[in-house]
Each structure stands twice: as structure tokens, then as C-alpha cells.
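Exercise: predict the fold of this chain.
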Amino acid sequence: MNLQQLGWAIPLSVLAITAAAGSSPPAAAFSSAQHCTGVEGYAAAFDGRRTFTLRPAELTAIKAAMPTDAKAKAALADLLKRADAALARKSGSVLDKSMIAPSGDRRDYISLAPYWWPDPANPAGPYIRRDGEVNPERNTDRFDRMALGRMASDADVLGLAYYYTGDRRYADQLAAIVRTWFLDPATAMNPNMNYAQMVPGHSTGRPEGVLDTAGLIGVIDAVGLAGPSGALSADELTALERWFSRYLDWMLSSPNGKGEGAKTNNHGIWYDAQVSRYALFARRPDLARKVVTDFPARRIAAQIEPSGAMPEELSRTRSFHYSIYAIDPAYHVADTAACLGVDLYGWSDSKGRSLRAATNFVAGYRDRAKDWPHKELKWPTADLDALLLRADVAWPGVWQRRGEGDVVLRYRVE
């Protein structure tokens, strides 16, 4: 396989944009000796583990320090409890819900939009929106959202548990989960979001529902972590790539998919994060490259101000949370770009619009929640710490590495 097939050709349009703007020095995440090599991800540098977000330098350092790292040991002990609980659970599927999509096909995913509630003045009528307040009905077995979230969470936990312990049971259970959700013809989810984030009285499914599958980015890395176990056969991995390729086709051609791609807030960035990452996993590097090529003008310059503020997110009732939530998928796109030989972490336009500016903007309010001048219903301390752990990989030494829980099994902390 040559470098072109691996996706290492740098798009001339990106080079032209970067040159015109005056690029920053290459970000550390881009210039690391442990390269992400196109559609193969970090496999060559990670003993065959085909990850795209999780970096071998971070995880191998954490694993090596585990015997003397009290925080990492405690986090692993907690993670293994959750992994053991996942071992005891039946693999979930889209057949578990009680509500059937309008198509009549039980394998079509359906979910409720998070911020929509029954109208107290008209309980049997159309739902009304309460921004930032999640309707608990969304996370019940009436819909698929809870099962999808559990599947993605269990896959993530089991992948990490296998990596840190080598216990084959964790890899086998991860494989069983993947087979049930994606591969078994009797239980596999149809690769569409036609009925995601429906709103009673308004819509049977909305473009915003594409966001429900963002957790599949983590499933891909979990599968990569378990790769050396052979729990999923080569044929099964190819079938999984085909599922993601079919989902990509739906994202690119359906009204809901195209509608989500047209969004100009965090939804649009998450759309790009999903399309570009699923394209790499499905071995469609040209599609990933197109998203990366368009990203500077389409997202960074259009959605981030020179100050780093993101106006669409600041208008929300959870403005700080959504600012972080918009930067996080931009990092995913930048990680994908690095796999293609493009440095989006270091990209800036002539006015300073960049991922670094957006990161600096939110980082400036670390330990200063009371100074945030916009509305925020619940300050997301842990989310900011996790974001800055990830940012430190791109721009080392700028922010203190803090974190709690299993994030310390993904990124080194101080």
C-alpha cells in the first residue's frame, strides 16, 4: 500500500489556505514521532491497535507507570468494576425498545429530542422546548438512546480494560457487543438516523438526531484497543467497516444527514468529526480528506471569533458547556487531519481564528467560574479538565494536566 492509499497526500487547498494565513509551528500532536498513518491509524506504532484518538505515547506511559501511580491504579480499579458489570450484561440492541419507528422496522433507531417536554398547558399536545433541561423520558427503554449509550460506554470500558489487563474476557465481551449492535442480521441497527431526536407533535426525526451516533467514534478506538486479541475476526472487522461505510452514505445523501451537515453550531462540527473519522475507519480516505480540506473555512473561520469565542454556543443556557462541546469534535477532526498529513491544530487565519484561540478562550476561565459572563446552568469542571488534557497533547506545557476518573487512563495527569 502506498502513501496515497494511506491518505498521506496533503490537499493543496489546505496548504494554500495555511500559507496565506501564515501558519503556526506544527502542533506537537501533528509532529509526534508516533504517527497516525492514514486509514491504519496508530496501528504501526501501537502493536497493531488501530486507534485514531487514543495515542500510544499516552497509554503506554500510563501503563508503564501504573505500579506507582496511585491515581491511575484507583481509576483502573473503578473501571474494572464497570467492565465486570458489562461482562454480566446481555448485549443491547435496537430490538430492546418498546416504541417502534414509523417505518415499522424494529431495527430502525428512534430517540426523543433531549430538550423537548410535554406542555403542562396541553399535556396531550405538541411538546415544547426547554433548552438545557433533558427530558428523562429520552433515557428510557421506550427509545434506543439509552441502549446506544450503554453499548458505546461498555465498548469503551471493555477496550480499556483489555488494554490494561490483557484479560481476554473483556475483548470477547466487546466483540459480542459489536456483533449484536452492528453485525448480526437479526439484531443489527439499520445504518440510519431517520427517526432520531423525534419531537411529538412536530417531527418524526430531525437532523439533530445525527448527533446521537457521536459515541461511535469511541467504539472505533475500543475495537482498535482489542485488535491484538483477535476477538473480532478479519472478516468481522471488514463487515464493521462496511456498516460504517453504509452509514456514511446515509449521512451524505439523506435529508437528515445533509441537514445536520449544514448546521453552523456544535452540531455541524460533530457532523464533520463523525464523517471524517468514519471515513478513515471505513477506508475511504478521500472522503475524510475532503472534510479536512473544507474544515478551516467552513468551521474554524466561520464559527470561531478571533477572541476564540463561539457565538452560536454562547447563546445557549449552558454556554460554557457548549463551548467545550464544540471544541471537542474539532479536536477529533484535527486528529483525523493529522492522519492525513494536515496540521489543523496549528492552523490560523490572518485574524487569529484557530482551535488554539478557542481553547485559550475557555481555558481562561479555569477556576474562574464566577467570572463567566454568559448563562451556564451547571459549571462543567471535569469537562474542561478533560479538554485541556487533550489540548496538552497538541500544545504541551501550556495548561496543568488535571483529571479524575477514567480520563487518567487516556491521558497522563500531573
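Check your answer against the key: The chain has two domains: 1-54+265-414, 69-262.
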